[in-house]
Structures are given as structure tokens and as C-alpha cells.
Write a structure and sequence with these properties.
This protein has 283 residues and is of the alpha/beta class. The protein folds into 2 domains: 172 residues, 3-Layer(aba) Sandwich (Rossmann fold), CATH 3.40.50; 88 residues, Pantoate-beta-alanine ligase, C-terminal domain (Pantoate--beta-alanine Ligase, Chain: A,domain 2, 2-Layer Sandwich). Helices cover 38% and strands 19% of the residues. It has 10 helices and 9 strands. The strands form 2 sheets. The chain has a 6-stranded parallel β-sheet with strand order 1-4-3-2-5-6, sandwiched between helices. It is globular and about 55 Å long. 39% of the residues are buried.
Length: 283
């Protein structure tokens, strides 16, 4: 596996990959890799494209109240995993490369970036959109792979690519879960044993609500019940909502493309999850 840490090294490495493949695929990450990231890399590799993974802990998507320094880092372990998963190039830029001191441009997304995580973490999606656009420009990728666990992020990136006419195909990959249903996340490692035992209730609450919608129950009652159950289980719930999947606009009944989304804090860890839903009688 090739490793690039500067733009000249990246240009040389991607030129080498292009010589042997007609397509490049990118998996953007912030490191602390787990099997969820592995699913993205293996999906990219399986597509037949030469696969690049970036590791960059992006300071622009952390608010002043979030601890950037505490974000988990394990470069050696991450590189070993990427190699095992079949990645051909790891791109590890530093902050000065991504954000030169004289830089003056950021991307301010709206639409699906508004509300939910956009409201809870002001400026977060500015950081996501800006760094992803930079990575696309640096790697000159043909496709990029993102996990559905961060559903709103995926829709923000899709909207940005469409609006800016970027020649990149965005591929969403299904959320990878533990055997008990907990969605994989780099932050799960900060859960205490007792918190980890309660954490799967987040996915269970989503699944109960989805089953209720499929059975014809009223959305408002199901959403209120889901919040109440989570609160009783020790979660501090930021939101538990039914939305139109692409736009993230709140809706009051199941419809094609609808999504149940939630974010809740358990101890020091803020957990996100979401699932697709179907209406009564849908197959």
C-alpha cells in the first residue's frame, strides 16, 4: 500500500494508480478505523476501482465545545487495517496542507445541512463540506464512499456534489452494527461497560418505531414513545424524528424514502443512528 503525506506525493501516487486502473475511489475518514470503515473500503475495492483512503482529523468540523484533542488516533493501527482491507493508497495530509494560512474559502451548505446535527453542532457541516470538497479536488476521485450511519452527512455531501456539478459518484454503504444492534462508531470506545450494555436500546427504539409505522400506528405517538423509552433508559435525547431521507425535512407519516433519525447522549458519548422506514402495506 502506498502512503502519501504531501500533495506532490499524492499526485505521484494517484498517477501510478491511474496507470493501472481507469477509476479511483475515495473513502474519507478521520481515522480510529473499525469494521464500519472496513465495509466502505471493501465496497470500494469490490467496485474494481483503485481505492484511496484519507485519514485526517478535521478541525473545521469541531465546535469550540468539542474536544478535538480527545478524538481517538491510531495511525499505525489504521494503516495496518487499510492494507488488510485492500486499500492501495493512504492519504495522510496535515492541517497546513488542508488549510493553508492564507486560505479564504469555505463551503456553507444549506438544505439538508439545516436542523438536526446542523442545529446541534453549528458549523459542523461547513467543516464536513469544505474538507470533503478539498479531498475530492486533491485525489481527483471518480467515486466516494460514505456510511449511512451518518445519514445527514451523506445527504449534505450528495447535495453539495449535485449543486457544484462535481464529477464524483457518491455511494452510501449500509450501517455496520454489533451483534446486539449498536451502530459501529469510533466514539463507542468511550462508553463504560454499563453504558455499553444500555447503548443498543437506541437501535431497538428505532426498530420499534419503524415496526409501528409499518403497522399503521400514528407517527407522533411512536416518536413520543421512543423518546420516553430512551429517556427512561438513561439517554439524553437530542432528537428522535421521522424525516424525508434526502432533504431531512420533518414529515408526519411514512412515505417512500422516509428515515427515522436519532441522536442521544449516553454518559459522555453522543450516539447517532437511523433506519429506513416503510408505510402500512408497503413491501
Amino acid at each position: 500500500m502506498l502512503i502519501a503525506r504531501s500533495l506532490p506525493e499524492l499526485r505521484a501516487a494517484t498517477a501510478d494508480l491511474r496507470a493501472g486502473s481507469d477509476r479511483l475511489a475515495l473513502v474519507p475518514t478521520m481515522g480510529a478505523l473499525h469494521a464500519g470503515h472496513g465495509a466502505l473500503v471493501t465496497a470500494a475495492v469490490a467496485s474494481g476501482a483503485a481505492t484511496v483512503a484519507s485519514i485526517f482529523v478535521n478541525p473545521l468540523q469541531f465546535s469550540p465545545t468539542e474536544d478535538l484533542a480527545r478524538y481517538p488516533r491510531d495511525e499505525a493501527g489504521d494503516l495496518a487495517k487499510l492494507k488488510d482491507w485492500g486499500c492501495q493508497l493512504a492519504w495522510l495530509p496535515d492541517v497546513a496542507t488542508m488549510y493553508p494560512p492564507d486560505g479564504a474559502t469555505v463551503i456553507e451548505p444549506a438544505g439538508p445541512a439545516e436542523g438536526w446535527e446542523g442545529a446541534a453542532r453549528p458549523g459542523h457541516f461547513r467543516g464536513v463540506a469544505t474538507v470533503v470538497a478539498k479531498l475530492f479536488g486533491q485525489v481527483r476521485t471518480d467515486a466516494a464512499y460514505f456510511g449511512e450511519k451518518d445519514w445527514q452527512q451523506l445527504q449534505v455531501v450528495r447535495r453539495m456534489v449535485t449543486d457544484l456539478h462535481l464529477p464524483v459518484t457518491i455511494v452510501g454503504v449500509e450501517t455496520v452494527r454489533e451483534a446486539d444492534g449498536l451502530a459501529l462508531s469510533s466514539r463507542n470506545r468511550y462508553l463504560s461497560p454499563a453504558e455499553r450494555a444500555r447503548a443498543p436500546e437506541l437501535a431497538r427504539a428505532l426498530n420499534r418505531a419503524a415496526a409501528g409505522l409499518a403497522g399503521g400506528a400514528r407517527a407522533a405517538e411512536l416518536l413520543a414513545e421512543g423518546q420516553a423509552v430512551l429517556s427512561a433508559s438513561g439517554f439524553e435525547v437530542d432528537y428522535f424524528a421521522l424525516v424525508d431521507g434526502p432533504s431531512l425535512r420533518m414529515i408526519d407519516h411514512a412515505m417512500p424514502g422516509a428515515r427515522l433519525i436519532t441522536a442521544a447522549r449516553l454518559g459522555p458519548v453522543r450516539l447517532l443512528d437511523n433506519i429506513a422506514v416503510r408505510g402500512p402495506g408497503a413491501i
